[in-house]
Amino acid sequence: MRHLWAHCLLLLLLVSQGQGVKALPTAHLNQSCRLTAAETATEPACSAELNLRHIQLLKRYMRPELDACQDFYAYACGNWRSVHKMGESAMSLSGARIDQRYVELFERLLHVPRSTEHSLPLYGKLLRYYHSCRALGKPRLRRYLEQLPHIGGNHWADLLAVLGRYGYHEHYVKIEVSQHNASQHMIVVMPHNYYLNLSLSGSIYNALRRHTHGQLPSLKQLSEQFKQLEQTLQEMAQPPNGSSDEETVSTYTLEQLQQELPDLNWTHVLHLQLGAIYPGSYQLLADDLPALRQLISYLNRADARLLQLYSWARFLQHLMQLPHNPLSNPQPSFSAGSATSCVQHMRKTLYLAMNFAYERNYYGKQRQADEHVIFGVFAELKQQFAQQLRLNVLGLNATLLDALLDKVQGLRINVGNLPRNVSDQFYEECVQHWRVGNDFYENHLNSLLHYYDHLAELERTEDAAMRQVWFSFNHHGPELLDNIDATPYFYCLGSIIIMPYAYMQLPLYESQFWPALLYGDLANTLGHEMLHSIDTYFVDYDAQGEMRDYSDQLVLNKNYLKAVNCLNDSEHVMLNERIADISGTRLALNTYMKDPLERRHNGRLYFVQFAQFFCGEEADIYHDTGSKRLNYALAQMPEFAEVFNCAPGTPMNPVSRCSFW
Ligand SMILES: [Zn+2]
């Protein structure tokens, strides 16, 4: 749940004055600034006022009476919960502030018809979309089905291809356009995804019943029929025991595919879904031809009506499960069309247009200063990272080491996730064929259509300029789980780090921060994401996003295995986050805090600022709780123990440590 950030400066100063003055001594802080006066909005650059105000905020979250060497999280974040609600973290508060800015923007545009934004079609479309979402009443799922284009006949593959236009392709036979490496998309054909099932809800059943004018078995009977169908499909799609790890994806020409799987007209199906006639020599990827052959043969003989109903039901379920569909918003504080739920839905569904509006109305003013600072810190980290790798403490062979160095040198960064250096015309052309009317259901489907049409075009285009722009950032799709705009992340196929708008504001970042504050979070966050590029999973992608066998080589290295095992005391899925935390923190410290004098005067502030990202962070399927992550990472750093005078053997200064990259 998201809540508005509400802090009162006056209150904040009063509260923090009573706290221990020594918690964060400011007398000898390094006050150097990466920006010149010309690059900032304030005089002087990196004003003491801005930095001291932020330090007061940090003190507000601290409990300096506690022992930092016992539990640094309790020391640095101990008061967080008394200030913020359950579930709130610095990142979630930041995301909520961005949602609020969008709401303000749209509400202003709705009420001020003479605003300059109205002259750009992009804003008009966003506004109509917002309005149609705000007007939503009770969910009427059959409206989605009514929007589907009419297709002659009742062949399962035709309906499937039509649903594929909207990005849905999980059952029967999957045809998907997906990103293949840093500069290429490909068409992929796969058997029925038996990991996903239909759970036929009352609302989906009612939508089907209305759509078929009541010509439907009972809910119970239909559920039973669907279950049997799923069972049969799973038996055909699931590989026999023991062979599920085998690599079965291969490249085929369309002609070869047609010969191998003659029971489906592939040219016709691809045309229907992707809007183009592909030549016989066209190359695509296909997985498990025997399973596909069996599935197609079965589906061609099965009850066409049942297959159609199942497709509709799965499509509706998919739409309802798309992240931030306001119709399925589980948060009781939102009504279906609340301003915030509409904005969150639009941020996900209308990715490029929404980011453009944010850039133009809010972020654009600070971009230049931010890029100057962030690119500078990123370059320092990269250089340090390469230097550390060259020491080759794990004793890797020269070829592998060179490949990893290449990868590190090739890492890119994108602030805010729009392509860089494109004109307004680029965005005008992007939204030209995007249709928006007054009906939410129609708008939602048309937006999906617009996004997936674009992917299909990107896959087949030979326009080098177009490819270059579109592969310069991560134009992520509406189905990507979690609100990924909410946190920095490493995108392995593009070998690119995305720093979302939500990161680019207080309390995590400000271009005018003094070094301890700036590096305290930014260098650690960048370090963390950079280390993901060589964590145990992503290490296999090279600088161009191609899959390699680097981890096969690494597991033959005893030092590497020892390092992994040292960190791996929790769920395997957490391991890579732990690697990124620890090695990223090490990288940041090596970059900024090598000088003992710098540590003495700036160390405390640096570590307390580092803690901000973790205050209030709860565990999820990939991450430990913020407290566990923070304490674990810093206990691994002797510099932390030095700065806080931790006696050997205390929790934050353990006798033995793990070391990795
Ligand atoms: Zn991570």
Automatic annotation (TrEMBL):
Highest taxon above the source species: Eukaryota
Name the UniProt record assigns to this protein: Endothelin-converting enzyme 2
Pfam family, one: Peptidase_M13
The keyword Iron-sulfur is assigned to this record: no
Cofactor(s) the protein needs: Zn(2+)
Gene: LOC108611766
Domain Peptidase M13 N-terminal: 69-416
Keywords: Hydrolase, Metal-binding, Metalloprotease, Protease, Signal, Zinc
Membrane topology designation: Single-pass type II membrane protein
InterPro entries: MetalloPept_cat_dom_sf, Peptidase_M13, Peptidase_M13_C, Peptidase_M13_dom_2, Peptidase_M13_N
Similarity comment: family membership: Belongs to the peptidase M13 family.
Domain Peptidase M13 C-terminal: from-to ranges: 496-659
Signal peptide: 1-23
Keyword match Protein biosynthesis: no
UniProt-annotated location(s): Cell membrane
PANTHER family tied to this protein: NEPRILYSIN-LIKE 4, ZINC METALLOPROTEASE FAMILY M13 NEPRILYSIN-RELATED
Organism: Drosophila arizonae
